[in-house]
Amino acid sequence: MGLPPKSYFHLTEIAERWNASIPDLACYTIDGLLEVAIMTIGVRVDAGRFEVSERGVFRVPEAERILHGPQPVVSSDLWPVFRAGAGKIVRFKPHSADGYIDLSEDENPIGVCVQDLLITRAERDRFENAHGLVAGNARAPSEDPIADSLFIQRNNYAEVVLNGEVFRLGILQAAIVRELHQAASSDNPWRHGKELLANCNAQTLRLVDLFKTKRNWRTLIVSDGRGYYRLNLPERPARRPSHRAYRRLWLAMCNVAPLAPLLSFSS
Could you tell me where the beta strands, DSSP code E, fall in the chain? Predict the structure, then answer.
């Protein structure tokens, strides 16, 4: 019998497995692509959610908890750790966008350094599956250039990442990008703007009007100048005809009869 699988790994172990540097992992973390945790043992926290009213934003406490084991932290809080080698943690990553998990008032801030940063097995496997990674940073073989592009979507396309650039989209904008992403996997990635707008029940008649609030939208979506649009991903290469198809085409162009009848005639 072998050793049981580990439930978490130190950042240095992940860097070695992916043949990456700590600054690389720091970039993925700060960009929100990689979830990093720290170890907690009996840490008391207050959990709740934020609510918005006419008076502003206020907290609604829900529970007091005691944390044990690896607990993900807010990625932006780790910047001092990556920059200076050490920092302090006073909150943890909530389970929902409107939630919060803060240290209890009687808990001191948790001092951490780079050596304290952890990646859970579940997060390691998720990241590797999302980016086609295996041990040693070997990419899974792919003949699809779209699969090799860094395109990620979250929350039903409410947020997408293309080559490291983040785009936060409204409902109709997300519907457009979803349809274009599906088209990108077909033989024809181009879709007409009016068709896209009609499919998402947009009231505007031009795609540029729907995306005018996103200054960088043209780095996500490209136009052919004739009303058609596609995601800014590499187009699929045209399939090469088989040798048999080439032979049939050559015979047709040369108006040459197949050899089989000629052989039977000569015999």
Answer: 8-10, 37-53, 56-72, 86-89, 91-92, 99-103, 110-113, 118-120, 151-154, 159-162, 165-168, 191-192, 221-223, 228-231
> How much is the pTM?
0.52
With tokens 């007409």, the residue in question is: 192
CA dist 100 → 45, 71, 120, 250 (Å): 10, 13, 21, 69
228-231 and 99-103 as β-strands: parallel, antiparallel, unpaired? unpaired
pLDDT digits 0-9 by tens, 125-184: 998 888 877 655 544 444 444 444 568 888 788 888 887 788 889 889 999 999 999 888
Q: Are 74 and 35 in contact (CB under 8 A)?
A: no
Q: What angle do CA 88, 68, 99 make, to 5 degrees?
A: 65
Which runs of consecutive H residues, i.e. helices, occur in 59-167? 79-84, 121-131
